[in-house]
Design a protein that fits this description.
Helices cover about 10% and strands about 35% of the residues. It is mainly β. The protein has a five-stranded mixed sheet with strand order 2-9-8-4-6, with no helix packed on it. The chain has a five-stranded mixed sheet with strand order 11-18-17-13-15, with no helix packed on it. Strands 1-3-7-5 form a four-stranded antiparallel sheet, with no helix packed on it. The longest helix has 20 residues.
Length: about 425
Amino acid sequence: MKRNVYILMAAMLAFFAAACQKPSLYIDVEQDVYEVTAAYTELNIPVSCNTNSTASIRYDGVASGWILLLPSLLDGNGVYSLWIDENPDEIAGRSATLVINAGSVVREVKIVQGQMTTLAVSPDFIATTVSEGTYQVKVTSSGKWTVTPDEDTEDWLSIDQTSGEGDAVLNFRFSKLADSDVRTAKVRIATDIKEAEITIQHGYAQEIGGIVWAKANVGEPGFFVSAPDDPGMLYQYDSKTAWTNNYPTADPWDGPAPAGMPLGERKGPASWTDGNNPCPEGWRVPTVEETADLVGTVESKNYAWLEPEVSGFSIPGAILGLPASEAAAATSSDMKGGIFLPSSGNRSWNKGVYQNPGHATMNTSTAYENIYRYVVKIGEGTDVLPPDVKWSWGENNAAYSVRCVKDERVSYGPVEIGAPGYDEGQSYN
C-alpha cells in the first residue's frame, strides 16, 4: 500500500516539475500604442517572449508599405525595429499594427503616425527702413513650432514668442543702430518636420530728401549685400538676372562674357517692370528723377569721391545725398546721413566684358530713347552729369549695379503692436 502511495507522489512531483520547466507561452511588450510624428522615424519595440516569435505589419486604410520591419523573427527576447517613412499628407494621419505571433499567442502593437504639419511665414524677408521699431511676421501652421534666431542677434533683435502652436503673429523688435551700421541675420521657424527661414537686414535704409534709400547694393536678386562697400552684382535694364562683378580686377577689359548673358542692341520698356525687379520685396529700382535729386548737378553737387585711406571703406566710392563739403567729411563709421556708392564698374552691352572699375555706377528705372536707360556713373575727378548728356545713359544690355529705394506701395512696419486692422506685408496701391 505504501509503495503505491510513493509511486503516486513521485508521479505528481514529476508532473509539477515538468510544468515548471515549460510554463505557458507569453509575449510581453512595453506599451500597446506608439504615437509618432509625420517625420521619418526609427522606432524600436522591445519584446519579452519565452519562445520564438514572428512579426508582420498590418496596414489600416489604403496606404501600405510605409513601414520597414527588421527583423521579422526573434529567438526569445529581443527588439523589433520599425523604419517609418515620412507622412506627406497634410490632411490626415495614418496607422498600422505590428502583429507578433508566438505559437497560439498573438500580441498587437498599434502604430499611429500624425499628419504632415503645414507651415508658412509672411514676410520671409525684412529689410528695415527705420533704425528701430517693431515689425510683424505671420505664422500659419497646423502644428507646434519653435522660433530660433541666429546667436549673434541678442543685442539688436528680440522676438516676443519662442514657440507656439497653430497660427500666430510674431512681433520682431529691432533696437536702434548707429547711422552706418548694418546687421544681417536669419530667424528659423520650425515644426517637427518643416522649417521656414526669415532673412533680416536691419539698418539698410537712409531717408534723403523724403526718399528712403538702401545703404547697400543688391547682390543676388532679392537681397542686399552685407556691407555698404560691397559692390554687389551687375544688372541689365529691366532684368532680375544677376551678372558677376569682377571688381577689383587687374585687367578689366578681358573676356569672356558670362555664359548666357544677352548681348547687342535691345529695346526696352519705358520703365523697369515690377516682374523684373531685382530689389528685395518692398523695394524698387529708383527713377531718373530720384537719382538726379540724390546726386545733384555739376554746379551743385550732392556727392563727394572718397578714397579708402581717408574714408575707412575698403574700396573707393562716393558719398551721395549731401552737399559736397559735407559728403567729403563722411567716413565708414559716420556717413553723415548720406549713402556710400562703391566702385563697381559695369559690363559692356556688346561684348559683356567687365570694364570701368574706377566708376561707381547705379541703374535707374527710366528708359532713354528706347534702347538706352539712364544711369549714374561717378569716378575720381569725374563729374556725374545731368540726364540730358551722353555720360548719363547706357545701353539696355550693359550691366550696372542696383541701389534700391523703398516702394511706398508696400508696408512692412514698423507697427504699433496690436494696432487694429494692420495687415503686415500687404500691398497698398
